[in-house]
Amino acid sequence: MRRAGLGEGGPPGNYVASGYSVYEEENEHLQEGLKAKVHALKHLSIDIGNEVKYQNKMLGEMDSDFDSTGGLLGATIGRLKLLSRGSQTKVYCYMLLFALFVFIVLYWVIRLR
């Protein structure tokens, strides 16, 4: 069976005159373009993997930092609970003295201007 434009009038295997080589060249050109895109995607996926590993490491470090901060805050809250279990009069007296001290310092700063 003969196909139009493929080997008509020439010796078998001579595809240059038929346009077959044009399709082969276009196919090779598209193949090279596809190969370049696959290469770019490969490098992009490797870079994404490296970034994910780095971010995972950083999150692990942040987790340990937050755990230590949580422990510190827990100890501080425990001390505050212990302080609040004591005499309420002492707490109110300390708060009043602190507020009075702040107001005196503010008055002194404003007056010296």
From TrEMBL:
<protein>
    <recommendedName>
        <fullName>BET1 homolog</fullName>
    </recommendedName>
</protein>
<keyword id="KW-0256">Endoplasmic reticulum</keyword>
<keyword id="KW-0472">Membrane</keyword>
<dbReference type="GO" id="GO:0005794">
    <property type="term" value="C:Golgi apparatus"/>
</dbReference>
<keyword id="KW-0597">Phosphoprotein</keyword>
<feature type="domain" description="T-SNARE coiled-coil homology">
    <location>
        <begin position="21"/>
        <end position="83"/>
    </location>
</feature>
<keyword id="KW-0333">Golgi apparatus</keyword>
<dbReference type="GO" id="GO:0005789">
    <property type="term" value="C:endoplasmic reticulum membrane"/>
</dbReference>
<keyword id="KW-1133">Transmembrane helix</keyword>
<feature type="transmembrane region" description="Helical">
    <location>
        <begin position="91"/>
        <end position="110"/>
    </location>
</feature>
<keyword id="KW-0653">Protein transport</keyword>
<dbReference type="GO" id="GO:0015031">
    <property type="term" value="P:protein transport"/>
</dbReference>
<comment type="similarity">
    <text>Belongs to the BET1 family.</text>
</comment>
<dbReference type="InterPro" id="IPR000727">
    <property type="entry name" value="T_SNARE_dom"/>
</dbReference>
<keyword id="KW-0813">Transport</keyword>
<comment type="subunit">
    <text>Interacts with SNARE complex members GOSR2, SEC22B and STX5. Interacts with LMAN1/ERGIC53. Interacts with STX17.</text>
</comment>
<keyword id="KW-0812">Transmembrane</keyword>
<dbReference type="GO" id="GO:0016192">
    <property type="term" value="P:vesicle-mediated transport"/>
</dbReference>
<keyword id="KW-0175">Coiled coil</keyword>
<comment type="function">
    <text>Required for vesicular transport from the ER to the Golgi complex. Functions as a SNARE involved in the docking process of ER-derived vesicles with the cis-Golgi membrane.</text>
</comment>
<dbReference type="InterPro" id="IPR039899">
    <property type="entry name" value="BET1_SNARE"/>
</dbReference>
<keyword id="KW-0931">ER-Golgi transport</keyword>
